[in-house]
Amino acid sequence: MNIAETFSNLLQQTAFFNLSWGNYLMMCIAFFFLYLGIAKGFEPLLMVPIAFGMLLVNIYPDIMLNPDQSMNGTGGLLWYFFHLDEWTILPSLIFLGVGAQTDFSPLIANPISFLMGAAAQFGIYGAYFIAILMGFNGAAAAAISIIGGADGPTSIFLCNKLGQTALLGPIAVAAYSYMSLVPIIQPPIMRLLTTDEERKCKMSQLRPVSKLERILFPIVVTVIVCLLLPTTAPLVGMLMLGNLFKESGVVKQLTETASNAMMYIVVIMLGTSVGASTSAEAFLNLNTLKIVGLGMIAFAFGTAAGVLLGKIMYYASGKKINPLIGSAGVSAVPMAARVSQKVGSEYDPTNFLLMHAMGPNVAGVIGTAVAAGTFMAVFGVK
Hints:
Blueprint: H1 3-13, H2 21-38, H3 44-59, H4 77-86, H5 89-101, H6 105-109, H7 113-119, H8 122-133, H9 138-145, H10 152-161, H11 168-180, H12 182-193, H13 196-199, H14 211-228, H15 233-248, H16 252-276, H17 280-283, H18 286-316, H19 335-347, H20 354-378
Helix pairs in contact: 2-3, 3-11, 3-16, 4-16, 5-10, 5-15, 5-16, 7-18, 7-20, 8-9, 8-18, 9-10, 10-11, 10-20, 11-18, 12-18, 12-19, 14-15, 15-16, 19-20
């Protein structure tokens, strides 16, 4: 073999000769996501691994190679990560970590927050019917509509349970993207639907919550929700187990592991594998555009429904409940609660809404899991 042939073979092995225009377009999208995560700080823990997984699969598609299609029976690295998504292992572990990190006291102290968390699920059910009108079958419409909860793990969980793995890439990326873009998407809707007087409403301090209440809450919620919708056990059960670790105070090592080391390992694996599901062949089609659009509709409707119920409660309570906290009913914890605080403080810097907004925010996590369980029950998934 002469030198010219050697160099020719080397050049043929480079990615430049094997990529399509779609791969280059997806690489540009990956660069944009990296910019949002690194330069703009939009949920970098999610956005950076997702963007990098997207970059890798469009440079080297075999990183997601199925072992059945491999010459030596060995799959690509990120295929194994992605299989943990399909088995719903990673989404459930994410919920365990979220539970270990989250204080449920604001929801316990103000149970009426459950109503705002429930109202925000309107976007999910509204998008479901719109998706059917756009030509998706019932199971696909349900999997797409759950994006409105701004809950990536639940979106992945439901998509797999309903057998819609072909749509998993666009659904997961849309869900995580909207989670990251909460600070951009929600404020205009919140301002549009509220007045200056409503935004300046100051809420009274929440009552103290006893340790016994904090311990009983995850146990009671698990029993009630899982008895009504057993299929939610992997998500709700793990969420509440993580919170029980935190509140019991007797398993500090487990709490620290679930909320730190384990959580971040799972985020790396889930984020890169979700990003790697967006090869040009799988992502660049009309259905993807429909999914992204439906996700935006669902998320906007959910935010609006939470704020509008907040307005009703504002007047029903004698102007004691700030309607801005209703927007936190989507389950992007704690980003949505922070947005409620940020918008409220713009109109009154002394207004502290964060802890009040955490009530609907936590309720939204539970509500989205319940919505997923409802869809699974409707379609006979066990």
